[in-house]
Structure formats: structure tokens, C-alpha cells
From TrEMBL:
Keywords: CBS domain. It holds the Pfam family DRTGG. PANTHER family: CBS DOMAIN-CONTAINING PROTEIN, CBS DOMAIN-CONTAINING PROTEIN CBSX3, MITOCHONDRIAL. The keyword Transferase does not apply. Residues 194-252, 253-310 form the CBS domain. This is Predicted transcriptional regulator containing CBS domains. It comes from Desulfosporosinus hippei DSM 8344. InterPro entries: CBS_dom (IPR000644), CBS_dom_sf (IPR046342), Diverse_CBS-Domain (IPR051257), DRTGG (IPR010766), HotDog_dom_sf (IPR029069), Ser_kin/Pase_Hpr-like_N_sf (IPR028979), WH-like_DNA-bd_sf (IPR036388), WH_DNA-bd_sf (IPR036390). PROSITE patterns: CBS (PS51371). The keyword Cell cycle does not apply. The lineage of its organism: Bacteria, Bacillati, Bacillota, Clostridia, Eubacteriales.
Length: 440
């Protein structure tokens, strides 16, 4: 269970009426205030807590068991871009059923029940029938209910929502909202999996200090910090190999470790670690050491994530997951197979997939050779031939020009020794140069 999930469980278990604050959660569960804030906002969205002006955030009753596919009448009105005619104080109710009034009244009686929401057009008889069965109304087509219908709704403490869209459009919009909620993905951040109790060496440590710490912890890589915990480097077994025990660590360490922030998404960080061979990423906040994550931490996190269908993967990662590096001293080259998931309606590789692979090859080549970050500004595809599913392709990125602010990269795709795609990628280089890793 991630820290985020632990906080949500903790909030659910609080007594009704308890005050919930960022500082309280951070202190009770020993998490950062940023993590606590995000969890409280999600708890508010789920209906566990409510923010009340001049009072604060309070644990409330009634929505703890709410299912992910439940929508409140307030959310329904927003989805359908509707106007609430009456029942403003009851908008936090969740309809237990949606009924479309496209049938005779005697047939509707089999489906209507107290707490349902009836989607209806200008059928006045159906509107009154639904209200008499204690069902709220969503009136479509921009039609206004007459005064008798409104009074009946007020008497029965029901809600009437008026939407400008027709019945088909409204039901499609609600279905889409339910679908989006069911497949909602939660982002895993670095701070959710990082190790905060970090073993480290100080700037005045020696190789002998490294050996003692390594024997104590069974680790071989350690961040190096100065007296105020500002990160100055990282040292590994490769760095100290063959060095005298009295040699200062500062003379051997890699002064440019792979730095990440607490709020960086693990999906993005994991891709860099895998493609560029990083085993360790150091977590820093304003230059100060606050944690560390290893490639093993990332793998274990994804093993847990795969058991939870609400978590998802990025398109880039899915496309590139089957590709591997080719030993090429001159250019960046990757190879992989065109799978069914990459195909279009005609059984060939989708143009979008090919461009994604080519663009990522160019991006990775720039990072590996120059440690530069870049944003693609233009990608011109000069040639593209149909590539059948099951074909092994080889993608090669050639750096044509790397200037201070921009670069040009030519990317070729080969299949069975034939050129099947070729493009030119123009990218804008970021202001900061990425760190290098001499230890790997």
C-alpha cells in the first residue's frame, strides 16, 4: 500500500466530525505535507471530508461506501451542462438508477424506484409519474417544466435538472463520465516509493569510510553530502575500486548523479533509468538530500501497480516496452517487433506508432551522447512503407546538428535490410544540461 493509500484509509477511519488538516496528517503518518495535501483533496472528491469556510476540513458521514461509478446529482448536472430548477439542497445525493422515459407509464413503473433519476423529454405525464415515484428528473432538450411539476418536486424534496441536449446526447455524456471514472488512473510519484532513511557519506569521508558503511548496510552506492546535507555527488564500488583506503571520497565520487524531485512521476523516471542504465536516482529538494530510489524500488512498485487496474501506463512506454538496444558505436540504434497492438485497420504498423518510436529514438540518442534534454518542435516523415505485424525493425538515430539551442536528428527505420521509414526531427534543447554518470 502506498503512502497515498495509507492516508486515505486513515482519513476513512477517523470519527465523524473530526478535523482534518495537512499538518495533522503529515505529523500522524510521518509523510510530507505535499503528500498529505493531495490525499486530503482526493478524500474530498470521494466525499470522505468537506471543507467548510471558517471551520476547516471535516470528516463527514454518508459517502464512505460510495462506489467509483456513483455520480451525484450535482455531478450529473455539470456533465449534462444543466440548470438546476429545484432541489439545490439535495444535489449531493447519488441516484441509484438511471431510467430513460421512452416507454409507456405502466412499463416505467417496473423500473422506477425511490432515489432513481428519470431522463425525460417533454412528456409531462412521465415527469409527474416519476416524481410521484420519488424519482428526480433530468429534463432534456432545453425544455422547461411547468409550475405544477416544479411544485410536486419541491413537495417530494426531489431535484429537477434541465439540460439543453437531447436525450441521446445526455445519456452518452453520462455513460462517458462513468467510463472515465472506472478507468481513472492514479499517478505514482517518486515520494511514494522513495527511501527516506538514506545511508550517506560526508564530503570529508575516505575510501575506508565507504568500506565500513558498505559492510554495515550491504549497499555499494551512497550519496555524498556536505555539512548541511546539500548533495555533492554519489560514490559506488566502481569508483573506489583499487583506491587506497585513505583516498578522499570527494576525489573519486561522481559529482553529477541522477537527480529527481519528490513530485516527479515514477513512470517518467523509470523510463530514463531503464534506457540509460541508471541503478540509483537521488531525490533532492532545493539541492538537499531527502531520499533515494533504486531501479529495484521502481520494479517492485510496478509489480504492485499491475495488481490494481486503476493504474495505467503511458503510450510511449507501451510502444517502447518491446524494444532493446543494439550495440552501435556510432549511432543510437534500437530494435523490436511490430505487434498487433501497434497495427492499424489494415494490419500494418500504425503511422503514429512509427513516429513515436522514431521520435523517442532521437530523444534517447541526444540524452545518451550529450546528456541534453530536448522538446520536439517538428518531425517530418519523408518516407513510410507498410510494415506488417510481426516484422522486426531496426531504428537508428543520427545526430546531424547539435547547437546551443536546437538540434537536428535524422532517424531511419530498416526492415529486412530495406529502408521502410525515414524522418527528420527538429528539437529545442532545454536550458539545463542533464547530469552524467561516470560510474555506469
Amino acid at each position: 500500500m502506498t503512502k497515498h493509500q495509507q492516508i486515505l484509509t486513515f482519513i476513512e477511519d477517523l470519527a465523524i466530525g473530526s478535523k482534518v488538516s495537512v499538518r495533522f496528517i503529515a505529523k500522524e503518518l510521518d509523510v510530507s505535507e505535499g503528500t498529505a495535501y493531495r490525499a486530503i483533496k482526493e478524500a474530498e472528491g470521494k466525499g470522505f471530508v468537506r471543507s467548510i469556510p471558517k471551520v476547516g476540513t471535516i470528516r463527514i458521514e454518508g459517502l464512505k461506501e460510495r462506489q467509483i461509478e456513483d455520480l451525484t446529482l450535482r455531478e450529473v448536472s455539470q456533465i449534462a451542462e444543466g440548470v438546476v430548477v429545484c432541489g439545490f439542497t439535495h444535489l449531493d445525493r447519488s441516484p441509484n438508477k438511471f431510467v430513460i422515459a421512452a416507454m409507456e407509464l405502466n412499463t416505467m413503473a417496473r423500473y422506477l424506484e425511490a432515489g432513481a433519476l428519470c431522463i425525460v423529454g417533454n412528456r409531462r405525464d412521465a415527469q409527474i409519474f416519476a416524481l410521484n415515484n420519488h424519482s428526480s428528473l433530468l429534463i432534456t432538450g432545453g425544455l422547461e417544466p411547468d409550475e405544477e411539476v416544479v411544485e410536486l418536486a419541491r413537495k417530494n424534496e426531489l431535484v429537477i435538472i434541465q439540460s439543453p441536449y437531447d436525450t441521446f446526447a445526455v445519456t452518452s455524456m453520462i455513460n462517458r463520465a462513468l467510463y472515465d471514472r472506472l478507468i481513472q488512473k492514479e499517478l505514482i510519484l517518486v515520494e511514494d516509493i522513495m527511501v527516506e532513511d538514506v545511508s550517506f557519506l560526508t564530503i570529508d569521508a575516505t575510501v575506508d569510510d565507504w568500506r565500513k558503511l558498505s559492510q554495515t548496510t550491504d549497499h555499494s552506492r551512497f550519496p555524498v553530502v556536505d555539512k548541511d546535507m546539500t548533495l555533492v555527488g554519489i560514490v559506488s564500488a566502481v569508483d573506489v575500486a583499487g583506491a587506497d583506503v585513505k583516498t578522499p571520497i570527494k576525489d573519486l565520487m561522481n559529482a553529477s548523479p541522477f537527480l529527481v524531485g519528490r513530485d516527479d512521476p515514477v513512470t517518467h523516471i523509470s523510463r530514463i533509468m531503464v534506457w540509460e542504465g541508471w541503478e540509483i536516482a537521488v531525490v533532492a529538494d532545493q539541492g538537499k538530500l531527502i531520499g533515494i530510489i533504486s531501479l529495484q524500488d521502481v520494479i517492485e512498485a510496478y509489480q504492485q501497480v499491475q495488481k490494481q487496474p486503476q493504474f495505467g501506463e503511458t503510450v510511449d512506454n507501451l510502444v517502447l516496452s518491446g524494444f532493446r538496444f543494439v550495440d552501435d558505436a556510432e549511432h543510437l540504434t534500437i530494435e523490436g517487433e511490430i505487434t498487433n497492438a501497434m497495427s492499424d485497420d489494415y494490419g500494418s504498423a500504425s503511422c503514429g506508432v512509427i513516429v513515436t518510436v522514431m521520435n523517442m529514438a532521437g530523444y534517447i540518442s541526444l540524452r545518451k551522447k550529450y546528456r541534453l534534454n530536448a522538446i520536439t518542435e517538428n518531425f517530418t516523415l519523408y518516407q513510410l512503407q507498410p510494415i506488417a505485424v510481426g516484422t522486426e525493425i531496426v531504428v537508428t538515430a543520427k545526430l546531424l546538428l547539435v547547437a546551443k539551442k536546437h538540434c537536428n536528428i535524422e532517424v531511419e527505420v530498416m526492415a529486412n535490410n530495406d529502408l521502410v521509414a525515414k524522418g527528420l526531427m527538429t528539437a529545442r534543447i532545454g536550458d539545463k544540461k542533464l547530469v552524467s554518470d561516470t560510474a555506469h
